[in-house]
Write a structure and sequence with these properties.
By secondary structure, the protein is an alpha/beta fold. It folds into three domains: 44 residues, Orthogonal Bundle (434 Repressor (Amino-terminal Domain)), CATH 1.10.260; 130 residues, Rossmann fold (3-Layer(aba) Sandwich); 131 residues, Response regulator (Rossmann fold). It has twelve helices and twelve strands. Strands 2-1-3-4-5-11 form a six-stranded parallel β-sheet, with helices on both faces. Strands 7-6-8-9-10-12 form a six-stranded mixed β-sheet, with helices on both faces. Helix 7 links the parallel strand 3 and strand 4. The model has no long low-confidence stretch (mean pLDDT 90). InterPro entries: CcpA (IPR006377), HTH_LacI (IPR000843), LacI/GalR-like_sensor (IPR046335), Lambda_DNA-bd_dom_sf (IPR010982), Peripla_BP_I (IPR028082). Global transcriptional regulator of carbon catabolite repression (CCR) and carbon catabolite activation (CCA), which ensures optimal energy usage under diverse conditions. Keywords: Activator, DNA-binding, Repressor, Transcription, Transcription regulation. Pfam families: LacI, Peripla_BP_3.
Length: 335
């Protein structure tokens, strides 16, 4: 049989109100009484009913997190940052995978809101009007994590993706490269796709390098799509001497494909990217990349959400975190 708060009160010899105060960390309970209640809870194996507590307080101490691809290691680091701060502020996390599909994202958002979460963190690509409508009708705060809406209305935490790409391409230009190709994400993605493409384009423009359409291929952020892109680049004349990849996973695919074709990285073709996933330091040669502070993006997003949920004052609703170039061995100075 389910152990109830009445059973605990009877076992401890106190009122149900006292048990409730202990369970809810109310400071107005004598230490001796608190100890007695906790001992009764442990003996009986009592677990408070979160649903009932939520109905009474109108809070569930639960936050919904929508993640684009649970198999992508970069999002694991974001989730870790979210979880650590959530634990610090005594919130539980419901993590939902949306597979980067708009219909599933909308469905998951609505499901989490129906579950009466106290707040929502959304990691995704494009914030469409359908997303915006779901967020607008939410009765709880929403923070965009690792993405932002183009209108800059919603609370968000991210890096400057255009500047990150600009800085990465300038590493190649400084190394003497002028035939620089890009493996981009979809240009419909405002951050990892379009913004990083714009950074690539601006770096070439400012260096007086002509943008060649054949030097840009669209990938899907995964290893396999870069294999096709690099095989295409290798057939060009002149072929690129350097490749900027929108993500590390595609960059690793590029390195392997270059090597599979009997060429060397960076001697024949240099490779640089954005993200700094763990595999970037494991591939050979190690990958020069722009590091996103993924843990910090998750942690700062969760902290911003706690402020909004608790109606604390917030100076900055659109937080931009710094990025950093990690120099490794996939780029070298040209002779």
């Amino acid at each position: 049989m389910t152990v109830t708060i009445y059973d605990v009160a009877r076992e401890a010899g106190v009122s149900m109100a006292t048990v409730s105060r202990v369970v809810n960390n109310n400071p107005n309970v004598k230490p001796q009484t608190r100890k007695k209640v906790f001992e009764a809870i442990e003996r009986l194996g009592y677990r408070p009913n979160a649903v009932a507590r939520g109905l009474a307080s109108k809070k569930t101490t639960t936050v919904g997190v929508v993640i684009p691809d649970i198999s992508n290691s970069i999002f694991a680091e974001v989730a870790r940052g979210i979880e650590d701060i959530a634990n610090m502020y005594h919130y539980n996390i419901i993590l939902c995978n949306a597979d980067k599909k708009k219909e599933k994202e909308i469905r998951v958002i609505n499901t989490l809101l129906e579950k009466q979460v106290d707040g929502l963190l959304f990691m995704g690509g494009v914030v469409t009007e359908d997303h915006a409508q779901a967020f607008r009708t939410s009765s709880v705060p929403v923070v965009l994590c690792g993405t932002k809406d183009e209108n800059q209305v919603m609370a968000s935490v991210d890096i400057d993706h255009e500047k990150a790409a600009f800085d990465a391409v300038n590493v190649l230009i400084a190394a003497g490269h002028r035939d620089i190709a890009m493996i981009s994400g979809t240009l419909q993605d405002p951050a990892n796709g379009f913004a990083r493409y714009q950074g690539y384009k601006r770096a070439l423009d400012e260096a007086g390098i002509e943008l060649r359409d054949e030097y840009v291929r669209i990938g899907n952020y995964r290893y396999e799509s870069s294999v096709d892109a690099v095989n295409y680049f290798l057939e060009l004349s002149p072929r690129p001497t350097a490749i900027f990849s929108a993500t590390d996973e595609m960059a690793i695919g590029a390195i392997h494909t270059i090597q599979d074709n009997g060429l060397r990285v960076p001697e024949d073709i240099a490779v640089i990217s954005v993200d700094n996933i763990r595999m970037a330091s494991m591939v050979r040669p190690t990958l020069t990349t722009v590091a996103q502070p993924m843990y910090d993006i998750g942690a700062v997003s969760m902290r911003l959400l706690t402020k909004l949920m608790n109606k604390e004052s917030t100076d900055n609703m659109q937080v931009i975190l710094p990025h950093e170039i990690i120099y490794r061995n996939s780029v070298s100075q040209q002779s």
